[in-house]
What we know:
Layout: E1 9-12, H1 15-23, E2 29-34, E3 39-44, E4 47-53, E5 76-80, H2 85-93, E6 100-109, E7 112-122, E8 128-134
Parallel strand pairs: 1-4, 5-8
Antiparallel strand pairs: 2-3, 3-4, 6-7, 7-8
Amino acid sequence: MRHPALVPELMVTELACSLAFWCGACGFRVLFDRPEDGFACLERDGSRLMLDELPKERPHRWAVAPTTPPFGRHVNFEIAVDDLDPILAALAAAGHPLFMPPEVKRYRVGEGAVTVRQFLVQDPDGYLLRFSQALAGPGAG
Length: 141
């Protein structure tokens, strides 16, 4: 498996809570972890990210501003999946609200276009996740 060229590392307030969300309803798996450091690397179908728990007693060494929720303001992480429905069902079963309900959206890409079905959900620290399923048919490509 080729390693992704970009792997975001997200600061989280409680690693166990984040792992329950990401590895539960969102379908990621722990690729490797360092529990003693409050760290885990997650993967789902080629999408990869790292979670790093904020220290309780001091600022994180990479913090560039106060760490107040929601984290990741003005950023959303698009995660391409084959099918949104299992994720939507798992989020509903867990009682986790959506930030934006599913929609079908057509985006211009160069001279062509791509059509996707997508929705937005926030993780426990407020990071915005956009799960996206490519659709076939007119405009897809």
